[in-house]
Amino acid sequence: MTELIENENGQITLDxxxxxxxxxxxxxxxxxIVGMAAISVRDGLAKLLNGSSVRKGVSVEVDEKRxxxxxxxxxxxxxxxxRTVVNNLINTVKYQVEDYTNMKVKAIHxxxxxxxxxx
Length: 119
Hints:
Elements (H helix, E strand, L loop, with lengths): L1 E6 L2 E5 L1 H13 L4 E7 L6 E3 L9 E5 L5 E10 L4 H20 L3 E12 L3
Parallel strand pairs: 6-7
Antiparallel strand pairs: 1-2, 3-4, 3-6, 5-6
Helix pairs in contact: 1-2
């Protein structure tokens, strides 16, 4: 659990899983991202995740200063500039997560696990 606000009425806590879910959906709305990927430990292959399990392609760590490090495993669309897609993802997710959680995003790591042709 990540404590966000404490006042005379109590406290608000936000589970890291909620931040992962939010960050995953923010990333999926970025141009050029086909989906999130889950890596199979058994065979090392990336598997495209559907919308309901998007959180499996995202991990969030909170440090002692309450700053976030977010890691993404993504699959990008064929024919797009990976650098442009990743820069867009970083800027979009950083802004949206900081606005949503009122916590600072210290770092965003992006692992491109595959490329897919979209119809």
